[in-house]
Design brief:
By secondary structure, the chain is α/β, with parallel strands linked by helices. It has two domains: about 150 residues; about 100 residues, no CATH class. Helix content is about 35%, strand content about 20%. The chain is built from ten helices and ten strands. The strands form three sheets. It has a five-stranded mixed beta sheet. Strands 5-6-7 form a three-stranded parallel beta sheet. A two-stranded antiparallel sheet has the order 9-10. Helix 6 packs across helix 7. The N terminus is likely disordered. This is DUF1638 domain-containing protein. Pfam families: DUF1638 (PF07796). It comes from Ereboglobus luteus.
Length: about 260
């Protein structure tokens, strides 16, 4: 299995770098595990700025590599605006699920994700973390954007900017709520229903599967090559054109 031979011991000490959208789930599945020594969260809003996301991820990787108590770094991210591509690391292998985005971590496999989107291509996903971050389309997002834009722009420009934000939702027609139990509340499902009604979309409540999220933090015994990529030091993550989603390449090739 690519990368396993770079592990310094059978039970490597792990640092987790995660998007704050997954904070409840990471706390539930990773915190308290004896081999998980560090958990660091990065802001969800970085997804809107891929260059900055990569820079913040790189800084977090460097902090983890500087910690002698860390042997491997787990990224609780998907490909996510390609922010994980080209991350530089000289000592610790990186471990990441084969996922385009964090929805795969909720669904349990990239195959289930692909099958759902094949059947319902216009799906926008709602999760506990996305709802808390005011990220999903709906009435709260409009109010949040108005508040944020009002800090930067003249009043006559605010409504125009909010309307422009709405344009990217035009090809969606389905609001799918998914969670893994951690941090979930019944009102989050109801909120997703309200957003669907507001937008004229179909609502769906999709059953989550915790296996991929749980195994991501479990250690090498669970990191099979079909579901996970282990990236050796001095290699980078690169998007593929097939079902493997991502691959490890020498850093000079991943630029």
């Amino acid at each position: 299995m690519v990368g396993l031979l770079t592990m310094p011991q059978n039970s490597p000490r792990i640092a987790v770098i995660a998007c704050s959208v997954l904070e409840d789930e990471v706390d539930h599945f990773a915190r308290g595990l004896p081999h998980v020594k560090v958990i660091e969260y990065l802001p969800q809003l970085l997804h809107n700025e891929p260059v900055r996301l990569r820079a913040e991820l790189q800084a977090a990787v460097e902090r983890c590599e500087a910690n002698p108590a860390v042997d491997a770094i787990v990224l609780a991210y998907g490909l996510c605006s390609r922010g994980v591509e080209g991350l530089r690391h000289a000592r610790c292998p990186l471990v990441i699920a084969r996922a385009h985005d964090c929805v795969t971590l909720y669904l349990g496999s990239k195959e289930r994700y692909s099958e759902y989107l094949k059947n319902y291509p216009g799906t926008y996903w709602y999760s506990p973390g996305w709802i808390k971050a005011h990220a999903p389309p709906g009435p709260d997002r409009d109010a949040y954007l108005r508040e944020e834009y009002a800090k930067q722009f003249e009043p006559e420009d605010v409504e125009y900017l909010v309307e422009q934000e709405r344009l990217w939702t035009a090809h969606y027609d389905r609001a799918a709520y998914i969670g893994l139990g951690a941090g979930e509340k019944p009102e989050q499902v109801e909120y997703t229903k309200q957003c669907a009604a507001c937008l004229g979309w179909v609502f769906d409540h999709v059953r989550g599967d915790e296996s991929l999220m749980r195994d991501l933090f479990a250690g090498p015994d669970k990191w099979d090559a079909e579901r996970f990529l282990i990236v050796p030091p001095n290699h980078g993550i690169q998007l593929t054109a097939d079902d493997s989603v991502i691959k490890a390449v020498p850093l000079e090739e991943s630029k």
